[in-house]
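=== How it folds ===
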Amino acid sequence: MTAAYPALLLLALINLVNFMDRMVLAAVAQPVKEELGLSDTQLGLLTGLAFAVTYVVAGIPLARLADRGSRRKLIAVCLAAWSVMTVLSGLVRTFSQLLIARTAIAIGEAGCIPAAQALIADLFSPRRRAFAMAVFTSGSSLGVLAGFVVAGAIERAYGWRAAFLVLGIPGLALALLALLKLPDPPRSADPVSNRMGLISTAAGLLRSPVYVWLLLGTSAGVFLLYGFSQWMPAFLVRSHGLPPGQAAIQFGWVYGISSLLGMLAGGWLTNRLAARDLRWQVWLPAVCYPICVPAYLLALFYPGTSVMFCALGLASLLTSAGAGGKSAAMMLVVPEESRATAIAVTMLIASLIGMGGAPTLVGAMSDLLSPQLGVNSLRWALAASLVVTLLGAACLMAAARGLPRGQDGKA
């Protein structure tokens, strides 16, 4: 178990770079929109649907490779590939070129999370997984922080293109470290299970009502995460009059720190509660989801910037508190011998709903409302998206009814 923690920290660092590179475009969205002449719908496609579709389509075959081959090598190669494409994003001149670059980044990043979470599940027992998953997921919060803060600072000093050029470089060095240092423990030698195809794996998962409810509840959280993280910097520019770089920096600090604290505190609390009843892995986010809605509404509609950021920080903390628990709960219902593939199937659906749907739908709704509401169209589009959070809480409560109380699998 001792060797598991250095590997966990390295995987969290890789996840940091994953989200840092993914968030650069959101951090500089407004200057990119102005220079390339893009609509909100096009921006939503770049940060949402186009990225998500490529991400999930590539994720399935890459996850199969992770289940059958070396997870260490796969993670290292994918990390190097998306880092190169992040650098090249700073050289684009048209929407089509940026679309190609974004889809290429999605292909690289698609190999990271399924292989990493499957590796963590092998390294940690069920009772310890919630905090381990929270530590891994906390890398995403730091990545969001770094992506917005560093990209915002670079954009202010050198322009948006320099942000892509600089932030793509760290992943190349980290890819070498991953290749040299990540463990690759042996997997189940069950030849029948390891030959299960994608269709068989997906069909087996979707036959489980617990899995379906958990998937829908997880998708709601992804929807909320991506809807707000991709559009809040642009909202701050339009509704609070902040310069693009300053908006990205301030949002990055507030969102990154609050979500990091939420993930780590929530993971620690979930581990403590799950020692008595594993269902707390989904009960905690089910409680936090509806509580965060008033905080998001305050952030969207209060005119003062200071209060707005405080409300946003509280909302982000509550939204993130259940991240580790949901990931740990998923490990209870997916087949052990094909975890990476099962996680990729989960990501396929959750990413299409959340990562693909939220930025695209919010952008399209903003364009639709713009003739009537003008600059306030984005505010109302984000507010309307919060209804998904309430539905997600109901789905998680339904999933909890079918989860075991303890590690012996007894309900």
